[in-house]
Specification:
The chain is α/β, with parallel strands linked by helices. Helices cover about 40% and strands about 15% of the residues. α4 (about 80-95) packs parallel to α10 (about 210-220) and α7 runs antiparallel to α8.
Length: about 475
């Protein structure tokens, strides 16, 4: 990284995670090496453990009510799916570490951006709408079976209702037309004694697209810069940070809200991960680097506010944690699920080159490690670049595998540990370490915290589809 390059700082962060409704609870829980996973029982009784986010959106009502009309909070709660609500909560938390940052972002106009992505999207909204649609379609088909001529007459009468035009002023005329159409449609149903048509799908399906969390944060923050959703599965947070650093370096932004957000564990995802042969299903915690039985689905959110370090420090804002100096990104071009050897290495080497660093400059490394056989390949890759002295952490046995948020949780844990001069413990014991992995590398953080090395820290994420993101950070 050239001397002229802008330095990046973290000026706010917020968390929604299992057992952790906020960043304060997250930090407190990291000091304990016990798992945060709980039984799922989404299929009735089952053998799955999941990371169920702890969250109450009502906690954020006073903040929203102070800035918006009362209906705004109610609209969010009624229309938004969990990924948006989690992200909004995490963003409001992030503003709390640096009072005045909210006003600064508003004053920046187009120089304040929002890059908040999701790995799984708004599953609950789509699932509920699909179930209701399926039922409505069956009832509709049954009602009109053998009555094709009558259905044709019904549809003609309905088309006449839908052809009503807006009269007078646009706004008032639009509302009048909507009300009149609704009244006439109701009378038409009463006339035919027909069920509701199957095309009356909840509009929440389109209010909850992948970019909705970023859009809602932009609305709440009243920022006018780019707001969109990067989507890179497990690498989403690292990719969002990479894009944010590039935008700040290019002068396109001074501040960027970056984040990732996932729905709570859902039968669709738990079942799909199980069928994909990557999920543990024996009712026991499957720690990374151990018996390699599989991972655990988790939900929640992580949001950071990053910005031009010198610019924001000059404004009186205090940076948090470490300084992100480089993010290397790559694609495997290999397999939809199984990581390659070359793809992650390319991301790591790109990050080292961008940071102007050598492998010996690294003191600690956080693995993607999912408690699957891929952990062995990941540690092998690590040792092809770094030495035995690098202290390695793996945390998915604590809070599970957030599809997009997990990497951000792990990176935040690394930064929070640095602020206290330590690497927080993990649930793994030395005895549980897989023997073949032990033969590759011997420096791991187990159930006892360790002093944080005064060197660079690394974090690798490897997403479904073969998307890799490697974040390098240095002490401030």
């Amino acid at each position: 990284m050239s001397e002229a390059a802008k330095r990046i700082g973290v000026f706010g962060w917020g968390i929604v995670a299992p057992k952790s409704p906020n960043i304060e609870a997250f930090q407190k829980n990291l000091k304990c090496c016990d798992t945060w996973l709980t039984p799922f029982n989404g299929f009735g009784r089952d053998n799955f453990l999941v990371g169920q986010p702890e969250f109450n959106f009502d906690d954020y009502k006073p903040w929203i009510d102070e800035r918006f009309a009362p209906r705004h909070y109610r609209t969010l709660k009624d229309k938004m799916d969990w990924p948006s609500l989690f992200a909004v909560g995490a963003f409001i938390q992030a503003l709390g570490q640096n009072p005045g940052l909210e006003q600064e972002m508003q004053s920046l106009g187009k120089l304040a951006h929002v890059y908040v992505g999701t790995g799984l999207g708004n599953l609950n909204t789509l699932y509920e709408a699909s179930v209701k649609h399926h039922h409505a379609q069956e009832v509709w088909n049954s009602f009109w079976a053998g009555r094709e001529q009558e259905l044709e007459t019904y549809l003609a009468e309905l088309a006449e209702i839908e052809s009503l035009k807006i009269e007078g002023g646009i706004e008032v005329g639009k509302l009048n037309a909507i009300r009149e159409k609704e009244k006439r449609r109701l009378k038409l149903r009463e006339k035919w004694n027909s069920p509701e048509p199957p095309w009356f799908i909840s509009a929440n399906v389109i209010w909850n697209l992948h970019n909705t969390p970023a859009a809602q944060i932009s609305i709440l923050a009243r920022t006018h810069g780019l707001a969109f959703a990067p989507s890179a599965a497990c690498s989403t947070f690292g990719v969002a940070l990479h894009l944010a650093m590039n935008a700040i370096q290019a002068g396109e932004a001074k501040v960027v809200v970056v984040g990732a957000t996932d729905p709570p564990p859902h039968p669709l995802t738990v079942g799909a991960f199980y069928s994909g042969r990557v999920l543990s299903a024996d009712g026991q915690v499957s720690n990374p680097l151990g018996n390699l039985q599989g991972t655990h689905v988790a939900g929640g959110s992580v949001v950071w506010i990053v910005g031009d370090l010198e610019y924001l420090k000059a404004k009186g804002f205090k940076p948090l944690g470490m300084e992100p100096v480089a993010v290397g990104v790559s694609s495997d071009a290999h397999h939809i699920v199984t990581p390659s050897e070359s793809g992650p290495r390319l991301a790591v080497h790109q990050a080292l080159e961008s940071a102007g660093a050598q492998p010996d400059d690294l003191g600690t490394w956080d693995l993607h490690a999912t408690a699957t056989p891929g952990d062995f390949a990941e540690v092998s890759n690590l040792r092809s670049i770094f030495s035995e002295s690098v202290l390695v952490t793996a945390r998915k046995g604590i809070f599970g595998h957030g599809m997009s948020a997990g990497g951000g949780w792990e990176l935040t844990a690394q930064y929070l540990g640095y602020m206290q001069g330590k690497l927080f413990p993990t649930p793994m014991t030395a005895e549980e370490l897989n023997p073949e992995i032990r033969n590759l590398h011997g420096s791991f953080v187990f159930r006892e915290e360790c002093a944080f090395p005064n060197k660079l820290a690394g974090k690798l994420s490897m997403g479904i589809g073969g998307v890799n993101a490697c974040v390098l950070s240095r002490p401030i």
